[in-house]
TrEMBL record:
Domain Response regulatory: 69-185
Organism (species): Candidatus Desulfatibia vada
Keywords: Phosphoprotein
Protein name: Response regulator
Annotated positions of the 4-aspartylphosphate modification: D118
PROSITE patterns listed in its UniProt record: RESPONSE_REGULATORY
InterPro entries xrefs: Bact_response_regulator, CheY-like_superfamily, DNA-bd_dom_put_sf, HTH_17, Sig_transdc_resp-reg_receiver, SinI_DNA-bd
Amino acid sequence: MKNDLYTVGQAAEYCSLSRGTLWRYIKSRDLKASQTPGGHFRILRKDLDAFIVERGMYPLANNFSSNNKILIVDDDREIRDVLTQMLSAHKYETETASSGFAAGAKIATFRPGLIILDLRIPQMSGFEVCRLIKEDPQTSHIKILAITGYDTEEDRDKIMKAGADDYMTKPLSSDALLGHVAGLLNGKRGFN
């Protein structure tokens, strides 16, 4: 289990900075820290990670997903192509996968900020893909927009329990999809 609270020394080591340099970031309030009753400073991991990503510090910043990258997972080539064209026209960088296993491989290399995930895909269902992504601390931050052409209340409940951030039914209208995508990438949950 990874540490969620760091001393100044531990945080400096984590960032590959000197203790003095990190202390200056704390004093200037560029790095959020809290003070213990004994006068020592502690930094939450989420605040430290945000600090590193904001400053583009290598290598940690390279491990975080980009809000501009969207992975489209659907076994229907036509849907993948239409979504790729639509999203690319709005300056999103896209990659596609036609199965659950292919999605897993793409996530590791592409590092998407959002996955548009069909529920019915070969090799591994969208439900299982979603669950695995959300259970892994390295990928749990990735937003998942579940899509399906077979809308049932049972499937909707099941995918949301698996950790999906939003849900849409096919056929997808361009305006609605773009609204959901922008909302999710800007930190808002579902629009349904």
